[in-house]
Structures are given as structure tokens and as C-alpha cells.
Amino acid sequence: MNSPIGMSVRTRFAPSPTGLLHVGGARTALFNWIYARKHAGVFVLRVEDTDHSRNTQEARQVILDGLHWLGLDWDEGPQKGGSFGPYYQSERNHIYEEYLSRLEKGGHLYEDHGAIRFRSPREKVILQDEICGRIEFDLTNPGTHPDITLRRPDGSWIFHFVNVVDDIEMKISHVIRGEDHLSNTPKHIELYKALGAEPPRFAHMPLILNRDGSKMSKRDEGAALGSYPEQGYAPEAVRNYLCLLGWSPKDNREMISISEVIALFELNQINRRNAAFDLAKCFWLNGQYLLQMDLARYTELAIPFLEKAGISWPSYESLEQVLAIVKPKLKLLRDLPEWVIPFFTEEFPYDKESVAKSLQGNDRGESGSARLEALSTAFAELPLWNASALETSLKETAIKLGVKTGELVHPARVAASGRSVGPGLYEMLEILGPERTLIRFAAGAIKAIA
Ligand code: GLU
Predict the structure, then answer these.
(1) C-alpha 382: how far from chain center
(2) Does 287 map to a domain?
(3) Given the residues 80, 124, 218, 404, the one annotated as active site
């Protein structure tokens, strides 16, 4: 492993704005960011937007939003500035002109039908890749390796050229990118040499495939990073999942904090085999993160979902109290509004199926109604209204009526919240308090026989 000690680490994420940030791109950004953070280096964001047709403000924004959401702060780049800007390729024309004339002077270029091409020295190129190891590319045959174009007849630049120029100009020490660029790398090395520049270290990461081994397309579920926030994934969970795409802490742990990843991360330990994308695992991790997250962070993530659903709450404390009992069970924050709404308004909806099943039952509702009335009577007598007293009282009532606990739990839950899924019944009733609970039970008893 080439140690970066003594060399200042500068990595970069160089996305082309396509209108979406693919999970593969997000992982590339993440690994570059981790590597820079590990070595107290600099993480640069450079937007490769020479394709004018795709270069919209919206497409640029998708990238910035995605990186912000994942918490991948860049040290130089758009919105940040830096000594080697501008960081949009579309604004760097003058630099490319200058490099082109350098190559011209060195006799490396020729014109071909209006395009400018680079004359390959036709040699063998050796790449010592940090992940893939030593690879020898034989570029001696122009039939298999034609000279690359640097500039099109319309004056626009070709990726290979501007990518290399910018990596030189921005003093990039490590190019960490997808394996799909591996075959470009010998051509890039030729350009570095022709420009008299030392090539950076290269690390080509394995591709991310679907579980069936097919190539992941942008339409595959979970492929667009932008789809995660709206579903209620926690950014720390998705970031954790992305870390596992090609890398692992080697001790079977799946849940691992980002600071630990930074401490353990090594490029030469990245798996050389392609990574399989597994949305179910990401979903599972999200549930684990939500479960273990502290309540303040959970509340911070929850608030936008509740606001969007038009839910309001009397105080931050009352919101936290509700979220605390919802938190252990909920897997995606997207589902929060439905779970939370019965705590903050009397106008919550009753799920028809749940009413039919748990309140009305098969015996025309008389028993549903009678059970709620029996519960109301027992609860009304409680000297102390808390979850454990409610639980004891419900169980005693069940014995008295000669029914199973569940035969009281289900109608009580549906009467109190309109739904058959949700937080623990006793915790929920404790928060609702005696007044609201008993009113809802009375309304439920009527619904049962309606
Ligand atoms: N714009 C290129 C891409 O998105 C960058 C490749 C690289 O990292 O060098 O694929």
C-alpha cells in the first residue's frame, strides 16, 4: 500500500450533472470524503458539466442536495470556493485552452475533420491501482486503441482531457472512482506524461450491481439518492449502508459509526468483487438507526414530515413524549404522520377495516361495545393514570369478562387511535390521558354497533 504520509491528500468527487445522483456516485463521493477525512486532507467537489444540454441548474442542485443530505461536506467547490476554482468545468475554458496549446507546442496534437486528437505515444502503460493492483495496458495497436479526441469540431471538450487537466490543476493526489473508468486510465496517464505532470494515485472501485447480477440502472428501486429523504430514511443509515458497498470492517458488523469507518478505512481493503445492492438491508439498517438514535435527533428528522402533513403540536416536550413511544416500532419516517396524528387532534381518521375487524367483529358489535364499556368503567376508577396501571386494569377486566387480553387490546387501540397498528397501547393511553381516552372509548362503543 502506498502510504500517503508525507503527501498531502486531495481527493475529489467529479460528477456530471445528469439530473440524479446515483447511489454509485454517492458511494464514490463518500469514499473520497472518507479518505480525505482520514488523512486530514482536502475533499474537492468539481462538477463536470461540459455537456451543455444536461447542464441545468436543477441537475447541479440534485448533486449538491444529495451530498448535503449525506453530510459529505466538501472543502473546495461550488458554494465554498477555494484556490483552484472555478469548480464548474463549464467556467474553465481558458484553462483548457492553455493546456491544449501546451500539448500543441509539444507536438502531441493533430487535426482530424475539425476535431483535435491526441497522438498516442503507442507504448505499454502500467497502472499500479490501489484496489485492482498492477495492470499492464498495451496501447501499441491503434486498431484497438485509437487516438483519443480532446476537442470536438464544435469546440466542446471531451471528458478525458478536461478531467485530466483539472486533476492536475487542482493538485488531486488520489483519484478514487468507479471501475467503469478503469479502461480510460491508461489514456489519462498518457496525457499526464505529455503534459509533464505526475499522475495521481488511482483507486478503481468495484461496480454496484443489482442482486441478480444485472447492471444497476437509474430506474432500479433505490438507485436515485433523492428517493431516500422523502421516504424517511435517516441520512446516517443510508451513509452507513453505502460504506458497506465494497468495504467492510471485517468483523461482520453492519452498523458502524462514520468516525469508526474513517478510522478503519483503507483503499487496499476495498473488495475487488462487484458489490450487490440490497435495499432490504438498507431498510433494516434504517430501522436500527431510528431505534438507537437519541430522541433529539429523531425529533429533528421527524419534524419536517409532520409539518408537511399539517400536524401541529402544543409544545416540543409533548411532541418528544409522543415520538418516544413511536420510535421503537417505526421503520420509515414517511409513516410517522399516520402514527402521530391521533395524539394531536380529535379529527383523526378511523381505518374502516380495523373498525370492522376489531370493533364490530363477527357478532354485530355488541361484544365490542360491551368490552369498551367495561374497560371504561375499570379505567375511570384508576387512582393513577399510567401505562402499568392501565395494563394491570385491562388484564383484570379481561379475566372478569372471561376473554383473552387481545380481545380488549384490539378494540381499545382502534377506538383510541383509529388504527390497528401503532405504538404500545398502554403508553399511548397514558399520553392521551383519561379524558380523551374515555371519550374515544365511548365513541368507539357507538361505532361498534353502528
Ligand atoms: N465525470 C466523470 C463521471 O461522472 C468523472 C470520472 C472521474 O471520477 O474521473 O463519471
Answers:
(1) 47
(2) no
(3) 218
Same domain, 178 and 117: yes
- Give the mutation target among 163, 183, 187, 207 for probing the ligand 1 site: most ligand atoms within 8 A of CB: 163
Are 176 and 28 spatial neighbours (Cβ–Cβ below 8 Å)?
yes
> Does position 365 have pLDDT exceeding 70, yes or no?
no
Reference 448, options 380, 374, 398, 391; nearest CA is 374
CA of 108 relative to ligand 1 center, distance in Å: 24
Instruction: Answer whether residue 70 is part of any domain.
Output: yes
Q: For 73-109, how does the pLDDT look when each residue is reduced to its tens digit (9 = 90+)?
A: 999 999 999 999 999 999 999 999 999 999 999 999 9
User: For ligand 1, atom 4, which residue shows the shortest CA distance?
Assistant: 15
Residue 284 lies inside a defined structural domain of this protein: no
Is 96 in the same domain as 193?
yes
Can you tell me the distance from the alpha carbon of 211 to that of 248, in angstroms, rounded to the nearest whole number? Answer: 18
The 10s digit of each residue's pLDDT in 377-394 is: 999 999 999 999 999 999
Joined grid coordinates for residue 197:
505532470
The number of the ligand 1 atom at minimal distance from the alpha carbon of 177 is 8
| pLDDT at 4 > cutoff 80 | no
Find the 85 Cα to ligand 1 centroid distance in Å: 18
Q: Range of 260's domain?
A: 4-86+208-279
Q: Which atom of ligand 1 is nearest to the CA of 48?
A: 1
Q: What is the pLDDT of residue 150?
A: 98
Measured by CA distance, the residue closest to atom 6 of ligand 1 is: 14
Instruction: Cell numbers for 401, please give them.
Output: 369478562
218 has catalytic annotation: yes
CATH of the domain at 384: 1.10.10.350
> What mean pLDDT is reported for the chain?
95
The CATH code of the domain that includes 323 is 1.10.8.70
Q: Pocket residues for ligand 1 (CB within 6 Å)?
A: 14-16, 48, 163, 175, 177, 181
So what's the pLDDT on residue 52? 75
Phi, psi (5° rounding) for residue 350? -100, 125
Cell (9 digits) for 242: 453505502
CA of 131 to the centre of ligand 1 (A): 17
Confidence of residue 1 (pLDDT cuts 50, 70, 90): very low
CA distance linking residue 425 with residue 443, whole number of Å: 17
Asked if the model's pLDDT at residue 237 lies above 90, the reply is: yes
CA of 28 to the centre of ligand 1 (A): 10
